[in-house]
Amino acid sequence: MIRFDNSYARMPQGFYARVDPTPVTAPRLLALNGALADRLGMDRDALTVEMLAGNAIPDGAVPLAQAYAGHQFGGFVPQLGDGRAVLLGEIVAPDGARFDIQLKGSGPTPFSRRGDGRAWMGPVLREYVVSEFMAAMGVPTTRALAAVATGDQVWRDQGGLPGAVLTRVAASHIRVGTFQYFAVRDDRARLQALTDHVIARHYPDADGALALLERVVAAQAETIAQWMALGFIHGVMNTDNMAISGETIDYGPCAFMDGYHPQTVFSSIDRQGRYAWANQPDIAVWNLAQFATCLIPLMGEEEAAVEAATKAVHGFAPLYQAAWRRRFGAKLGIDGAAHQALIERLLTLMATERADFTRVFAGLSDGTARDEFTDRAGFDAWSRDWQALSPDQAVIARANPRRIPRNHRIEQAIASAVAGDMAPFERLFQAVTHPRDLHADWADLALPPAPAEAVRQTFCGT
């Protein structure tokens, strides 16, 4: 049995549309995250394939599609909303934490904007494996509970593709764009109700809108610093893809760098490089400024509110910089605040040669980092200065994954899954959810792609 307690369904009219998932023809379980089910206190036997596909609504669920707006690549859209996802409801885990249970790819909703509301197998499996890797590395993130093949085809530019549904778990699915939805309508009553709801759910120590803004700024500063330390590129940092909880959400054309360069972009729709790796902290500030604008009407006298909100958003930079130094310092086993210049020297060497981001840092613990450079003399000079600091090898080992969900490996696993063979996906999943382990059977998954295997573009694909 699954016990639901649906606080968002008790929000006032206008926050969501009640809608059931659209049934599918022949659901088949592709993957079930048993460890996550246990953490949530969910009975695995209750997680039937019919429920995970949207064909059966569990007792106590109140399916709904949430309303929100958002800036997409800088352009504002006043109504977006869940166009291909249905929130089944919320559960309270044994430790008292509350989580959303959402079906993604579950059919059309009133917010679908003429879309079919479906997802194909590729993006579902990509989000499943990447989000669980992020969780394994301690990054705040939505989680993947299950993936189900629907037995139906989804039609995209590539033609007919096998459909799938992802069961996504989140602290909540409330976004900056959720606040924008009510702010653009000058609906202060619902804006206040949303603010009160978020404070109660995520930041119970926050006293009012300004304190909420400060908490969200701090949460995002930590999350973005963790992205940067893993070479992760979100790809679509629109305001409707920034979660108020601080979790990483909406893994569309996301990717991890192989060869390092700060301006790396993968997303096929990011033609101007707006969301390049190095730009992510600045984009976070831009998104938080939009969030602040929504909250100003709730913060009292306008001039004072603008000043306070501006100060709060400007607080992102020192928080992020401190988190960045701490994360990258750990990757080198040193005090990042005291030795930022040494970190930046290594990154400059890496960028010059497009050295593999993951393998350089992982190689600092086993002496193989030098092998990633052709300019061995340059690396040796840096290494002498680094070694003089007596780096902590245990810290390095904890901070650096040996394996990431590399783009080419994800694509290979998807291709095999489409052909009916889930073994490569399952192997990749096990390897990247134990990312620090030394495991000879997974050694090939740590290798960068051969030139013919390199993936240079990723796609939303849903």
Written description of the protein model:
With 462 residues, this protein is an alpha+beta fold. Among the domains are: 8-170, no CATH class; 207-324, no CATH class. The protein is 39% helix and 14% strand. The protein is built from 15 helices and twelve strands. Strands 2, 6, 7, 8, 9 and 10 form a six-stranded antiparallel beta sheet that branches. Strands 1-3 form a two-stranded antiparallel ribbon. A hairpin with a 2-residue loop joins strand 4 and strand 5. Helix 4 runs parallel beside helix 7 (280-295) and helix 10 packs antiparallel against helix 12. The radius of gyration is 22 Å and the shape is globular. The mean pLDDT is 96.
Instruction: Work out the radius of gyration.
Output: 22 Å
Strand coverage percent: 5-15%
* Poorly predicted tracts of residues: none
Mean pLDDT over all positions: 96
Order of helices and strands: EEHHEEEEEEHEEHHHEEHHHHHHHHH
Question: Which quaternary structure do these chains form?
Answer: single chain
Number of helical elements? 15
In which range does the helix fraction lie? 25-40%
Largest sheet: 6 strands, antiparallel
Structural class of the secondary structure composition?
alpha+beta
Question: How would you sum up the global shape?
Answer: globular
Can you give me a brief rundown of this structure?
With 462 residues, the protein is of the alpha+beta class.
Q: What are its keywords?
A:
alpha+beta; six-stranded antiparallel beta sheet; two-stranded antiparallel ribbon
